Amino acid sequence: MASIDEIDLTDLDVFAERMPHDWFDLLRRDAPVWRHPANEEEPDGFWVVSSYEHISEAHRVGTLFSHQTGPGRNGAGGIALNDIAPGRGPGLQMVMTDPPQHTRYRKLVNTGFTPRMIRRMEEVMRLRTSIILDRICEQGSADFVVDVAAELPLMAIADIIGVPDEDRHLLLDWSNRTIGGSDPEYMDEGADDDHGSTYEGAVIEMAMYAHDLSDRKRAEPDDDLWTILTTAKVTLDDGTVTELTDLERDLFFTLLLVAGNETTRNSISLGIMGFMDHPDQWSRLAGGRGMDDVAVDEVLRYTSPVNFFRRTATEDTELGGQHIRAGDKVTLWYASGNRDEAVYEDPHRLDLTRSPNHHLAFGGGGAHFCLGASLARLELKIMFEGLAQRMPDIVATGPADRLRMNFVNGIKHLPVEFTPSKPVLTA
User: Fold this and answer.
1) With 50 as the cut, is the pLDDT of residue 215 above it?
2) 229 φ, ψ (degrees, to nearest 5)
3) What is the DSSP string of 288-316?
4) Is residue 369 predicted with pLDDT exceeding 70?
5) Which of 103, 238, 298, 341 is the most exposed place for a label (fewest CB within 10 A)?
6) Residue 298 in contact with residue 387, Cβ under 8 Å?
């Protein structure tokens, strides 16, 4: 059994190989609020919060743990381990802001994710799911991630933003490079220091596209979120009414694309793997049980597509008996909290009847609760019901190819086979 001294959550090669649930089991038992030692990747070290109880507590006292920055960081901060410089995200991108700025930003995009809007999308998403499965059903095999899991979330977020179908391939490329900049498969060949990393290159391309899309929406407004963001008026603290800046819109585009695509893609991919590891649960679904709300929430708990979010302490405080200093990085590991044996019986088992299930897959509540939660739930329901009905004998034919990344629980490829069948849609 591993010891705490062996744990290194900055080692991306570990996450490319497996999700280290054994490490989190150990931390929850012996050190639920643990100071990760400094190393070359993180010279200052950081706090690791692994228990459901303490993650929830950190969310309840949100003002003590900033999404933006903290003392001694000169405005740098954000939600990942590495600090992002001020003017590049902290204080400007919705997920890297605190109220009241976060509240103003959130009001602008709420209209794209209301229950009414999601209900309007359901029929379209069912049709798109049929199209996705029709493309592969006669083959009897597929790369599940590329051919199935990536498609529906990409279509959904493109519909919400107002991106034409012919541009969806661009969105997938940018999303992969934004999240996978540390993975050799997605690294830009010949990226130089002037443009930074693969991430920076993708950000520049997205910004150029967002500017062009804004021009198109001004000329021809439509019933989509990008038209709203292009024409929205924002009231500042001093009462001044203005529009979003180009940079603010650029950051919105990146957030909506990545958060609205990557997370659900990985929940679908990890979910089918979970079903394969728990054939009794797949048999229930394929036998006609359906994906009710309880089942959907269990898949979300089990998969936990976002491993952690980082916060920054705004003042000296205490959590789990540990003294945390103002300016310290504090990481909340949702993937660990969702498998906390103090909350869930047999937490490493997928159980579609598990109830109650107040999981942390959408965060621990509060102002930053996931904006797209209703959309993600609907996508999971529709996709797994479609798969269970049309490909009930689906099975993996090789290991999953995992993303070299500790921030999200990512799967890049998964070879699968199933009995070939005829398409359900006619031309």
Assistant:
1) yes
2) -70, -30
3) II---HHHHHHHHHHH-SB-EEEEEESS-
4) yes
5) 238
6) no
Q: How many residues does the chain have?
A: 427
Tell me if 25 sits within 8 A of 64, measured CB to CB: no
What's the pLDDT score for residue 148? 97
* Sign of the dihedral defined by the CA atoms of residues 377, 383, 389, 395, in that order: negative
CATH of 4-417, one of 2.40.50.140, 1.10.630.10, 3.40.50.620, 3.40.50.720: 1.10.630.10
The confidence score (pLDDT) of residue 386 equals: 97
Query: Quick one: tokens of 71?
Result: 């003392």
* Mean pLDDT, rounded, for 221-226: 91
Q: Which H or E run includes 330?
A: strand 329-333
pLDDT in tens, 96-132: 999 988 988 888 888 778 888 888 889 999 999 999 9
Q: Where are the domains of the chain?
A: 4-417
**DSSP summary character for residue 187:** P
pLDDT at 9: 98
Q: How far apart are CA 187 and CA 140, in angstroms?
A: 31
Q: Give the CA radius of gyration of the chain.
A: 21
Question: Partners of 333 in the beta sheet?
Answer: 308
SS3 363: strand
Question: 214: which 2 tokens?
Answer: 């804004």
Q: Which helix (H) or strand (E) holds 247?
A: helix 246-277
Gap between the Cα atoms of 307 and 304, Å rounded: 6
Residue type, 371: L
For the entire predicted model, the pTM comes to 0.94
Residue identified by tokens 């990409």 is: 154
Separation between Cα atoms, residue 121 and residue 159, nearest integer Å: 9
SS3 (DSSP) at 391: coil
